[in-house]
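Reopening: structure tokens for the beta-L-arabinofuranose complex, inputs below.
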Amino acid sequence: MKQIIAFLLVICSITVHAKDKNLVLRYTFYSSNADEIIKDDTGNGYNGELKNHAYIDQMGDFSILNLGYSNGYVDMGEKVGTLINSLKDFSISSYVCINAEANLNDNGHFIWSFSNSNDIMKDQNGCMFFSARTQGFSISKTDYRAESGISVNSPLQKKIWKHVVYTQTGNTAKIYVDGAVIADGEITINPKDLGKTLFNFIGRSPYGADAYFKGLISDFRIYKKALSENEIAPLHADLEVMNNAYADYLLKPVQHVTNGNPLFSHKHTADPAAFVYDDTFYIYAGQDVGDGSYYNMPNWVVFSSKDLETWEEHAVPLSVSDFSWAKGNTAWAAQVIERNGKFYWYISTEHASIHGKSIGVAVSDSPTGPFVDARGSALITNDMTTEYTGISWDDIDPTVWIDDDGQAYIFWGNTQCYYAKLKDNMIELDSEIMPVTLPNFTEAPWIHKRGDWYYLSYASLWPEKTCYAMSKDINGPWEYKGILNELAGNCNTNHQAIVEFKNNWYFVYHNGGLYNGGSYLRSVCIDYLFYNTDHTIKKIQMTSEGVSKVE
Ligand code: FUB
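Re-run output (same inputs, fresh job):
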């Protein structure tokens, strides 16, 4: 009896896995990243190629395509054009998940496209595509002016796996999301009418100026028939399990390969604090969001790199809401420092009950968190410094230094620079608050040391340049040495960090250099810092290229 059951199970499994002759292309994304080839699992040879640092990743038990943040896409190759040209009835099916950061107001966000040019606006020679921005399919023998299509005209939901299928039989088209028809209608153009398409992409539009699809793709399939609702049902059976696995996947670091300055192009980042630990370069920054009309900064972010080319972005480790005494989207400048295996993140933010800005400190066992408020209250509040300035935002921009004898100091300020000693526990002041005299000090102090010289760099005047002073003693007096960095482009603030990493010195700062950027939508940059023989610092040369990969 057992043998009969086993035999039946084998027969069943053969039936289930029997080759579906209508399935003409399938990417399960089980190939490896190494050769950048995406295998067509039908055996028909429509292999694709990973482009612009798109990569294959593991999400729980699922192998997925991550298009990354550098305009990643898959080039399905010219051979697929022959397939497209042969299609009369067809279906294109895929799991997709749009990243939180995708700006779906921009044109583009095509899940797939097949076309005769990668500049359709100019060549006007035919394309078809599926847009996640409109949940719509379009096909044209020229360009957008002569399209036939169906759409619901609203974007697919972000941050959740969806299953999207487009089917066409003759002139009848349907779009299914998660197995349900969300749009249907008549299409007057057939893929055959496009000829053998030459540019066949997953995640990229044939319109050159369009935004690339930003997100994840799994189990991409093309059928040479219009699938029915019943046939589509098993294709989205993994949705629930995938979405469960996605919650953990979001905690995994995301890779970014930088293309010079600004360092990161997928989000706006400001007030960088650099930190070198265990052969790794960390950048802690505030995230600028919103419409660019004022500082709108709900959280801080952290990136790390071993070579300054490939950066990992870690799950958001700290938000203003992690400090019960703070309020608003005021994740202002901050710095992380290590002591005795613990990582202390000094931040500035708006106090909820004491008027003005305050400085707090969070702590973690790891440089990438999770971080928790170390005190449950602010370390420095505005009412502690009223004898120096009448402004409510002078208690911002902390920088912390542990001197060779183990004594820790915190410097901070706006308009007036202050400093104080910290106790060994790093979360309490150990002296009175003392003023530091610096010409034209605005904000953003940063302490570093080279040889027996201490350097105090800071943002000066308005709009801000970076200036610096030197001293042989952390307690000063500080000798002013002039401008270190001129105004950074398109931004009225500046905020620098200076660190040594693998035998070079680096100057990390922000400008308004990203598309859409400005004084409240800033972007972190990095350039080299060099010293003169008399230990003063050469003026920074801001570049678009940024710094080279460190081997
Ligand atoms: O990002 C908010 C504030 O702008 C910072 O705390 C200052 O340093 C300036 O960059």
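Residues 1-17 have pLDDT under 50 and may be disordered. The CA atoms of residues 139 and 148 lie 5 Å apart. Marking as resolved unless the reporter disagrees.
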